Amino acid sequence: MTTPNPQQPATRQWKMQFTSTPRCVRLARSQVGKVLRNWDYGEEDIDRTVLVCGELATNAVQHGHKRGHLFEVRLTHEDTSCLVEVSDAASSRLPRRTEAAEDDEHGRGLQLVAALAKETGHCPRGPIGKTVWARLALTWGEEAGRS
After folding, report:
1. What is the pLDDT of residue 143?
2. DSSP state string for 64-128
């Protein structure tokens, strides 16, 4: 288990808490997209980051739900990457990649996150819960939709 590097200077940071419901996963994805557009990210980076956020938020709602507690999404723009952190209130259910069968409707989220991120991990969150995170490399130039 590795943890994000708090020593790295952050040029931008955003966080928001959401009710632990599937509807709020859509809201989290929408808010993340708006923030990244305001930060002038390219569409490819926005799409990948929103997808990762959605997968982690879905897991927080499905596996980390604790009645009366919110989940939190935090974005940190680092020099050449974006750190996505999703925190929930369930301390006993750590993330675990599973091998989904071809016809399974669930079970591929963490594999997808790992494929899109340059690194992933999780750490305890005080006083309760955990944070699951993914660091995504940013693309630059014309391929990212910027000139």
Report:
1. 45
2. S--TT-EEEEEEEE-SSEEEEEEEES-SS---------TT-SSS-HHHHHHHH-SEEEEEE-SSS
